[in-house]
Input
Amino acid sequence: MALFTWSDEYSVNVSGFDTQHKKLVDLINELHSAMKEGKSKEVLGKIIGELISYTKFHFSAEETLMVQAKYPGLAKHKEEHEAFTKKVLEFEEKFQRGSVVLSQEIILFLKDWLINHIQGTDKKYSPFLAK
Ligand SMILES: [Fe+2]
Output
């Protein structure tokens, strides 16, 4: 069973970003299943790497559109993206070094961060970016 599923209430009314958010949900679910199934560090590391690169791609897509739309909340929004990216990169580094393992706690952190960020921060750009 998936850890969490997409719901229309998460929509930010920018279809491209909803699609990207769904892909992030899929990647977190994939990571969760792989952990539950006891997959190797190599397999988990590959999914973590994909999650990070897709997250970077997605954050930069959001930031580009916010710049174009002259969105007033850009700076604060960017700070949230940067803090999250930093945290996840630190985790990846420790994971690859073998000083931490992937845990339920980390998966829940990823899931909660994504949902809270979409609901609390991304949704604020909807009136500025929605077409
Ligand atoms: Fe965002």
Remarks:
- Residues 14-129 form a domain with the Four Helix Bundle (Hemerythrin (Met), subunit A) fold (CATH 1.20.120.50).
- DSSP finds five helices and no strands in the chain.
